[in-house]
Amino acid sequence: xxSIFDLLSQQLAGDGLSRIQQQLGTDEATTAKAVPxxxxxxxxxxxxxxxxxxxxxxxxGALSRDHDGSILDNLAGHLTSPDENVGSGILRHVLGSxxxxxxxxLGQSVGLDAGSSxxxxxxxxxxxxxxxxxxxxxxxxxxxxxxxxxxxxxQELSNKVPGGLGMxxxxxxxxGDGKIVDDVAKLGGGLLKNLLGRR
Length: 199
Prior knowledge:
Shape: globular
Oligomer: single chain
Number of domains: 1
Distance between the termini: 17 Å
Largest sheet: none
Mean pLDDT: 81
Number of strands: 0
Radius of gyration: 15 Å
Low-confidence stretches: 162-166, 175-199
Strand content: under 5%
């Protein structure tokens, strides 16, 4: 079975990338690097949050209330006119106090300014949640099953990218020492090369 990351990467290819490019005002090459990195960041953050402390229960509740997967039925419409308030709300919950650090670090690694990086993450967050919500419904997953699926997603990314999650781990696990941009700049190239090499 294809991973959620792979399925979303396929759905966002071609016309999807063009629509995202228009929203961000970026060139094609930068957009093609930024989208898989943003998807991986969001998947990694959700996996980390659901690994303990009631996070999986909270995520299951959010999916049940607000994310049934219907966004995937009109993905072009969402990408053409995204509701950034919804995306920003998701990011606040998923990234918490690390949101600005993640946005800046991700942007630095793929050649976006922090504002464009934030916009991209906000645009893709409801798409990721929709895909996860649809998977949860189709497989009738409880909180434990949801955490397991996300753990598998994170592990698959680790296997596909030598050296583990590298950039994503640095973004999500940053201890506040102020070196995030330097760390991401060093790690980002290898991660993105491997992700793009699979397309």
